[in-house]
Specification:
Elements lengths: L1 E4 L1 H4 L3 H13 L4 E4 L10 H10 L3 E6 L6 H10 L2 E5 L3 H16 L6 E5 L7 H9 L10 E5 L4 H10 L5 E5 L4 E3 L3
Parallel strand pairs: 1-2, 2-3, 3-4, 4-5, 5-6, 6-7
Antiparallel strand pairs: 7-8
């Protein structure tokens, strides 16, 4: 079982968040995805992440990257199993991906991180540039996720531009299509 907790939208007290985290832990999920607005702005987020990790639960962080500060990078890369940087605002997403790549270079083991472009509403033109150039500048980039709303031809074109070392998926309503490496 996987659980998604839109922790940023909840606006709960720290004690209430700890209580909910314990309730979620008792359900024994394999993965908890933290998102909903910007989770990095939630006070006490790292304590919540550690509770899940200490319970053996993988943590996925879904962030815009807007609130990512260099002081957070190491903790995130070591505590989360996956960090999905959403491409809603490319400037923030690119900044976050660069910080994560720099931080990952200093670690033996780190979270998989990449660009989640499944919810993109504008900036489709920036995806081509990202796949053709920026993705190559991020040697530890793990994935790029697209939505089928791009159109299958455009998604295949973007897949062809991305580095072969990066897992590229196209999310559809019912499934994921992964580029064979």
């Amino acid at each position: 079982m996987d659980i998604t907790w839109d922790v940023a939208h909840a606006r709960l007290s720290h004690d209430r968040m700890l209580h909910i985290a314990q309730a979620l832990i008792s359900m024994r999920p394999e993965t908890v995805t933290l998102g909903g607005g910007e989770p990095l702005g939630v006070p006490g987020l790292f304590e919540i992440v550690e509770l899940f990790r200490d319970a053996g639960i993988d943590v996925v962080l879904r962030t815009s990257g807007k609130s990512l500060h260099p002081s957070m990078v190491r903790t995130l890369l070591l505590s989360c199993s996956r960090i999905e940087v959403c491409a809603m605002a490319f400037t923030h997403a690119m900044h976050a991906l660069h910080l994560l790549d720099i931080g990952a270079a200093k670690l033996d083991r780190h979270a998989a991180f990449g660009l989640d472009a499944t919810g993109i509403r504008r900036g489709f033109d920036r995806l081509e540039d990202f796949c053709a150039t920026t993705a190559f500048e991020l040697p530890r980039l793990g994935f790029i996720a697209f939505s089928d709303t791009l159109g299958s031809d455009h998604a295949q074109y973007l897949q062809s531009l991305a580095p072969q070392t990066v897992r590229v998926t196209v999310e559809t309503a019912n499934t994921s299509v992964v580029r064979a490496s």
